[in-house]
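Record 1 of the preview.
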Amino acid sequence: MSTLWQELRYKMLQSGSKLNLLIGINVLVFLAINIPAVILHMMGNDAISIFANEYLSMPAYLPQLATHFWTPITYMFMHDGIFHILFNMLWLFWMGQLFEEYLGKTRIVSLYFLGGLAGAALFILAFNVLPAFSKEALYNATVVGASASVMAVVIATATLLPNYTIYLMFLGPVKLKWLALFYVTIDFLGILGPNAGGEIAHLGGALLGFIYIKQLKSGHDWNRPMDRILNQRPKVTVASKNRSVPSNAGRPREEEIDRILDKISQSGYDSLNKQEKETLFRASNHNEG
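->
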């Protein structure tokens, strides 16, 4: 057990992957709430479940939100059941690995939080403005889950690498752009269903992920505040596994980096020649220092 715990602690805190840290926090929060909640429920006491729903899920009703101002953060680490967290963490792991491979290991933290906040904002706006939602629905509406944050990562990765191909069971090879379009469509149509608030939050995260990459390609790096928090140099652009270039090589020009990023988004990483891969490595080496 101690060896397993040491390995998990290493992956979360010492491996350098912020993706592992995000997944670890989600899982630990889920277990910390639900294990004692199940035990107390078997004894006829639902105090923990009631407390979590009341103080950690995010309400749409503005007066209640004002007194629970922390919930736009806490809701994105809460999950309503084992399958909810399972599928969210699987998608975060699959897409997050690609995201970290091409854009480094610090960006995913800011994208996760920005996606969650965007989902929260669209959820609150929809329930307070759109006539489709009644006063009763507004008073009772709450949302939990990392889905908006995960959608931000999925759509950001698909926007960066639209022609990257993954293999799905029963379907075979599928390009990320079609996968992203499928999930956005499902979420949009799902607004007519019983989880309208959750679907709207997903769309907010998806929109944020799309804008995040478009802004990055335009030279506006939304990750710079997170870079400062994590004591990294700003403008971390790309990480690569190619180690054939000395770390003291000159930093590539921004125009060259942008051109290579555009080529990756159109044709995938494998389309780069040796010199372009070396350029990406030099950029990563100078920025991650």
